[in-house]
Amino acid sequence: METMNEWPPEMGCAQWIGTRECQNDAVYMSPADTGRGLMIALADGIGLDAVAGDAARAAVIAMRDEFEISDDGEPLEQIILRMVGGANARVRKMNEELDAKGELRTGATVACVAVRNRQACFGSVGNARVFLLRSGRLLQLNRDHLLSLEAEERDILAGKAPDVSPDWALRVTAYAGMDGLKQPDWQQTPIALKADDQLIVMSSGLYGVLEEEELCDVLTGMPPQQAADEVIRRVKAKSQASQSNISLAVLRIGSRRRRAAQEK
Predict the structure, then answer these.
(1) Other CB atoms closer than 10 Å to residue 132's CB: what's the count?
(2) Cα(128)–Cα(130) distance, rounded to whole angstroms?
(3) Which of 24, 141, 213, 234 allows an S-S link to 53, with CB 3.0 to 4.6 Å?
(4) How far apart are CA 173 and CA 186, in angstroms?
(5) Can you give the pLDDT of all 264 residues of the chain as single tens digits?
């Protein structure tokens, strides 16, 4: 059972458009725990045009809607499956409308987390990532749906040297809005969270921009909202010639020691 010091968790999120013309990421966090727990939903639209941003926002709204019809008796893993399924259905509906207009289809990579009673489940499609930060170590929880990873596995099983061509290494093999989407990557057994654990959901634009050690230092050194803002500030300071959209959301389970230190 949560204590007053541990629940609700602290949360924060931040975004930056980077050097792109459109912000094609979308992110949503529960504003409060109304009994069903808390959630983070993030989507990264595929493509550079505004329609990709529309797909990301539609996916996030769908995940929010699915979470908000849940109750405290529904298993977290079932909620996660509904959230990802809802995102896929919503973007597929968009694609039907685009088909009718003779326009190009769209899609979005998605990742979501649901937390209740200090237990967490995640779900994802594509290459948006979910991490657990525990005891200063950052662990990726989900698996990317990337052509390079699937080809590498096939090559290894066939006894061949993996061929990871940069031309196709980052192409996603699954996304919200695709026909025939198979089951997402998801946590089938809830993860037991500990005091000071953090769950981080991020879009692909942040990968490799900051070293893991620097990212951990920022996330552990300040409250989630300040940490998310600081991550964006540090990425901006690098002034990269080409920088994709960035979005990240952070959820931290509190502790008596941390809360007491912040109140001084």
Answers:
(1) 18
(2) 7
(3) 24
(4) 16
(5) 444 456 679 999 999 999 999 999 999 999 888 788 999 999 999 987 889 999 999 999 999 999 999 988 899 999 999 999 999 999 999 999 999 999 999 999 999 999 999 999 999 999 999 999 999 999 999 998 876 545 444 443 444 444 544 443 447 888 999 988 877 899 989 999 999 999 999 998 998 899 999 999 999 999 999 999 999 999 999 988 999 999 999 999 986 455 445 544
